[in-house]
TrEMBL record:
GO cellular component, one term: plasma membrane
Domain of life: Bacteria
Native source species: Pseudoduganella aquatica
Family statement drawn from the similarity comment of this UniProt entry: Belongs to the 4-toluene sulfonate uptake permease (TSUP) (TC 2.A.102) family.
Protein's recorded name: Probable membrane transporter protein
Signal peptide interval: none
InterPro entries in UniProt: TM_pro_TauE-like (IPR002781), TSUP (IPR052017)
Record membrane topology: Multi-pass membrane protein
Length: 246
């Protein structure tokens, strides 16, 4: 019962973060759920809420096809990287503590880049970088269940318009969620109980997202983003250090 209440609160909070910032639901959900369960169990609960909210985000803007034409090599890389990570027995299936540690390191890296306002400058061809970044994102997704690194910094480096960036993240997160679902199913980790709970979790996630969208106009988004990143930094450090000590 305590876990059900905790899961509900986590997805409500994660949805609110996504409503305010346009991102963060998978990151917040997996990070906080990993405090009370293994990362693979957390990732299994994530599938339906993540897919629903990211498809919503993807379709709420301009037509998707022009964006798909530009970013399809990255999307293909995400699928290939996630599949490769699954085939080599990604850390989620090998060792729960190792997965928690990898998740912690990924959260620290992501939060630090955001807090320091680090931005990539693309020196190579986008045609070469996109599939490589996608493959690396997919591999990290297979290992940790989180798909923001390095996808989000890379998309920010493309200097898209604000609405295009939000839509591009929705596209990347949708593809990553589907790839993660296939990965978990291939490992036998998406059992009926987890799938059912994932469907239930979409309710607080959507409620939180709607609340976050209403709050967005009443608060300073940049201050909220920095507080969110600082909390992720602390949580990532906790997960990484706990895995190292044990």
């Amino acid at each position: 019962m305590e876990n059900i209440i905790y899961i509900t609160v986590v997805f409500l909070l994660a949805g609110m973060v996504k409503g305010v910032t346009g991102m963060g639901l998978p990151t917040v959900a997996v990070a906080m759920l990993s405090l009370v369960m293994s990362p693979v169990e957390a990732a299994a609960l994530l599938i339906v809420p993540s897919l629903l909210t990211n498809v919503w985000q993807l379709l709420s803007g301009s037509p998707v096809y022009p964006l798909w034409q530009r970013l399809w090599p990255m999307m293909a890389g995400i699928c290939i990287g996630t599949g490769a990570g699954t085939l080599v027995g990604g850390a989620l299936a090998v060792d729960a503590k190792m997965a928690s540690g990898a998740l912690g390191v990924a959260l620290v890296a992501y939060a630090a880049m955001g807090l320091l306002s680090l931005r990539w400058r693309l020196r190579g061809s986008e045609g070469v970088m996109s599939p490589a970044i996608g493959a690396l994102t997919g591999a990290i997704t297979a290992a940790t269940g989180v798909f923001v690194i390095p996808a989000v910094p890379y998309l920010q480096a493309l200097e898209l318009e604000k609405d295009e960036l939000v839509q591009a993240m929705g596209l990347a997160f949708t593809v990553s969620t589907v790839a993660l679902a296939v990965s978990l199913a291939a490992r036998g980790a998406w059992q009926p109980a987890a799938a059912g709970m994932s469907f239930v979790a979409q309710l607080p996630a959507v409620a939180g997202m709607l609340l976050g969208q209403r709050l967005r106009s009443r608060m300073a988004p940049e201050l909220f983003r920095r507080c969110f990143l600082f909390a992720l930094l602390l949580l990532g450090m906790h997960l990484a250090l706990d895995a190292a000590w044990h």
